[in-house]
Amino acid sequence: MNQTRENPLALFPLLSFLIVFVGAGIIYDDFYKISILIPAGVATILSLLINRNSSILEKSKQFVKGAFERNIITMITIFLLAGAFSAVANQIGAVEQTVNLALAYLPQSLILIGIFLIGSFVSLAMGTSVGTISALAPIAVGISAETELSAALTVAVVVSGAMFGDNLSIISDTTIAAVRTQMTKMKDKFKTNFFIVLPAAMITMIILAFLTPDQATGVSVDSVQWIRVLPYIGVLVAALLGLHVFLVLGGGILFAGLIGIWDGSLTLPGFFDSVVTGAWGMHNLILLTILLGGIVALMNYNGGIQYILNKLTNKVQTKKGAEYSLAGLVSTTNLATANNTIAILTTGPLAKTISDQYGIDSRKSASILDIFSCTIQGIIPYGAQILTAASLAEVAPTDLIPFAFYPIFIAIFGLIAISFNFPRFKTKQ
Questions:
Q1: d(Cα 199, Cα 213) in Å, to the nearest integer?
Q2: What is the C-alpha to C-alpha distance for residues 148 and 143, in angstroms, rounded to an integer?
Q3: Is residue 323 within 8 Å of residue 364, measured between CB atoms?
Q4: How remote is the C-alpha of 109 from its chain's centroid?
Q5: Rounded Cα distance, 334 and 345, in Å
Q6: Whole-angstrom Cα distance, residue 251 to residue 236?
Q7: Helix (H) or strand (E) segment spanning residue 92
Q8: Cβ atoms within 10 A of the Cβ of 270, count?
Q9: What residues contact 110, with CB distance under 8 A and at least 6 apart?
């Protein structure tokens, strides 16, 4: 952090982003009426104007540094690969055939539970919620069209499953960040975290069972053309083998293209066109991610993040209060940064200091950071997960939030775990 002083005014750009984004959607009754890049642009200008003690040149350097930070570039690359994979898979009919497969073999009265379990499984294997959403959201949209379930509901279920893996996967950036900053072991954090969120997953599935309407049953299913399903199966297998998400999605693109060329549904020029069209289709999301990365960097530089950290930790007196402060600390930072990995990395060192001071087991502190960052990331309409899902489903980001059951329930059970000192550890750190 370049500046240690706190400055609440530095948070104003994010507040302006939310006011313009939500306000325009309410006024026009359409969240797509004005591009989301407009409120992001307003916030960018304001973030550059705040802090007169620094030159515009220095603030511009900080903005560029944040906009093209390693995590941002990684996310952009995933967006490009995901868009290309989605376009090629759709071009060869993979989405349609995968929907047929799901409807043919999943009990249709439990189709939403099936989507949640598949999303959880894939995200655990891939370690990326955005990659999971990018791969499975088109399938969820296809299922909604066949079953008359709302696209917002089915895609939100994918988001819930994706956040399950984001929170627990041993190769997830958030899990790695939580474990490293709290200096604990991956397997110990996984066990602690799993027992806290398991009830949330079970209740989510119960709700989804009741939300599956009668018309979701008795849908006619065409015969499955298995060869067109292979790209999604290949992506799943590659993820299970622990390959990097770049290799998973990149391999999926090539595999889908080869199948399309082999069966005649694609020509070589058509394959290249699909790749370019799919990648370009993510341009709004990529530009938004770049702008938000720069805005967050300036908020940090101008003292906004330090203000959050100080306000949430200056009145801690008990161990339970310290655990609540960790939850509030990472949640508020995640609201400001719109990135759960960055939120954990930002608050992790301070969280470790608080945990050591108040005797919080490192397994518990790592779980708290991961759980509450994933809660916020799974419900904010300007986060990469909701934005990606909404873009692929062609619905407003706010349409998904009422159906974000799992992210909300893990927060509830996280608070219960703090209140009742669960789990109880037999050994000290």
A1: 24
A2: 8
A3: yes
A4: 27
A5: 11
A6: 11
A7: none
A8: 16
A9: 209, 212
pTM of the entire structure? 0.71
Tokens coding 223: 């015969």
Runs of H (alpha helix) within 169-282 = 173-182, 186-211, 226-240, 245-263, 268-280
Name the residue among 353, 343, 419, 422 with its Cα closest to residue 375: 343
User: What tokens does 372 get?
Assistant: 């509450």
Interatomic CA distance for residues 185 and 202, integer angstroms:
26
Q: Which among 257, 206, 233 is positioned nearest to 105, based on CA atoms?
A: 233
At 69, the pLDDT band (50, 70, 90 cuts) reads: confident
Determine the 3-state secondary structure of 116 from DSSP. helix
User: How many residues are present in the chain?
Assistant: 429
| Cβ partners under 8 Å of residue 139, min gap 6 | 95, 98, 99, 102, 232
> How sure is the predictor about 4, in pLDDT bands with cuts at 50, 70 and 90?
low
Give 33's DSSP letter. Answer: S
The angle subtended at Cα 367 by Cα 364 and Cα 371, nearest 5°, is 140
